[in-house]
């Protein structure tokens, strides 16, 4: 099995963590979708990472789809409830955390534009998205819906989202007034799967 992606992508990290937690052996193929000679499009027509190539040659892309495929392999631990309605609730929290990643990526790309071309309105819009989503995740961490003791695709996505905010220094004050979320990610970051997938410092 091959995972195609970039070491700095939070979506790729999410899938890497899932594979490590489930003990699924995989080869990591480091491909940046932004590189001039990027080969990502041969795995995903959209030219986005992550993409997964199975041993039989099947190609899967988009992190929620890949996560769903990995659940179908029935490798332990299960990261989604068996009950369809409960699984959908977890999927929605995963989507919320994925939205934080999306907003963080847009924010970073906007700051990479020449200063004269940057839109403060767009930057503010993304920061507001992140803030609202983190407030919602804090509530779920407070009531135990998100818990490091009950690992799920949602808790993994939340950890990867905040890891990306830290890595790119987006919303550096995110931890203020969100103690339950802080405790959640501090516990997650101590897991071997998160330690092994930490983005490079440079």
From TrEMBL:
NCBIfam families noted in UniProt: PRK10357.1
Lineage: Bacteria, Pseudomonadati, Pseudomonadota, Gammaproteobacteria, Enterobacterales
Protein name: Glutathione S-transferase
An individual GO BP term: L-phenylalanine catabolic process
PROSITE patterns on file: GST_CTER, GST_NTER
Residue ranges constituting the GST C-terminal domain according to the UniProt record: 83-202
InterPro entries in the record: Glutathione-S-Trfase_C-like, Glutathione-S-Trfase_C_sf, Glutathione_S-Trfase_N, GST_C, Thioredoxin-like_sf
Organism: Franconibacter pulveris
Entry keyword Metal-binding: no
Keywords, comma-separated and alphabetical: Transferase
């Amino acid at each position: 099995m091959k995972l195609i992606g970039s070491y700095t992508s939070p979506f790729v990290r999410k899938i890497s963590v899932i594979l490590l937690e489930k003990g699924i052996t995989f080869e990591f193929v480091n491909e940046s979708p932004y590189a001039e000679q990027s080969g990502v499009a041969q795995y995903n027509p959209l030219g986005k990472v992550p993409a997964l190539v199975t041993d039989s040659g099947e190609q899967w892309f988009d992190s929620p789809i890949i996560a769903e495929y990995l659940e179908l392999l029935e490798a332990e631990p299960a990261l989604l409830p068996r009950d369809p309605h409960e699984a959908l609730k977890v999927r929605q929290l995963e989507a919320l955390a994925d939205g934080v990643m999306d907003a963080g990526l847009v924010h970073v790309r906007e700051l990479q534009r020449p200063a004269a071309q940057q839109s403060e309105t767009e930057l503010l819009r993304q920061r507001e998205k992140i803030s609202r989503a983190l407030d919602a995740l804090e509530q779920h961490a407070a009531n135990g819906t998100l818990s490091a003791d009950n690992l799920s695709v949602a808790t993994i996505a939340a950890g990867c989202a905040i890891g990306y905010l830290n890595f790119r220094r987006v919303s550096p004050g995110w931890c203020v007034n969100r103690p339950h979320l802080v405790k959640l990610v501090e516990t997650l970051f101590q897991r071997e799967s998160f330690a092994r997938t930490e983005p490079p410092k440079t």
